[in-house]
Amino acid sequence: SSDLEHRLLRSIEQLTKQKIEVATVPTVADLRARRLEITSDTRNAASRRVAEKALLQSDTRSYQLPAEIYYPKDAEIHARNQRDTVMIARDRGIRIAAFLQPIMGVDGREPAGIEKRWFEANPKQIENRRAFYADARRNLTLLQERFRADPGVCATDLTGALANVNERVYEDTGHLTLRGNVAVAEAIVAALTDCAVLERRPS
């Protein structure tokens, strides 16, 4: 993970006074094995070969939205990977949290300072992000509904975590500044507390 991601983890540790152990997330091979395991239930060799080909193709796909067009299939791939990751975690007895992160253009706030330049110069990219996030939010809602009764799964939309921050919060169009990290860390702690992953702090 990057220095910016480590900064977010440190912010969460400071808020919770708890050390976060960084574990290995499921690999592409894990996700592929999970999908092929599901596919094998059909006992259909032809369907299995088609699935293998599709998985190999999807492994090399870039999930970064292109500048001029939005493909709804990208949101479907994102949702499928998220579901598979949750299923792998459940199979291994691991509690898992899935968050939809804020990025510029879909965070419910007005850009501040230098952020405005990118925002104003890239209207198509903003449109694409909003289209993707509209689909991603619907998919996250479906994930929440599917695992609502499972205490081992916590799924939360954090895209509004920066809505009330008026200063610059992005290092670039997606990575956060220290101020942004603190705001998102507070939202993550609140979400994990609501899911009973963390103990509620005395007021």
Question: If you had to describe this structure to a student in words, what would you say it looks like?
Answer:
The chain contains 7 helices and 2 strands; from the N terminus they run ααααβααβα. The protein has helices at residues 3-16, 28-40, 45-59, 72-91, 115-121, 123-146, 178-194, and strands at residues 96-100, 153-157. It has a two-stranded parallel sheet. Helix 1 (3-16) packs across helix 7 (178-194), helix 2 crosses helix 4 (72-91) and helix 4 (72-91) runs parallel beside helix 6. The longest helix has 24 residues, at 123-146. It starts with a helix and ends in a 9-residue tail after the last helix. The relative contact order is 0.15.
The helix/strand class is mainly alpha
First and last CA, distance: 33 Å
Largest sheet: 2 strands, parallel
Order of the strands making up the biggest sheet: 1-2
Q: What's the pLDDT, averaged over the residues? A: 79
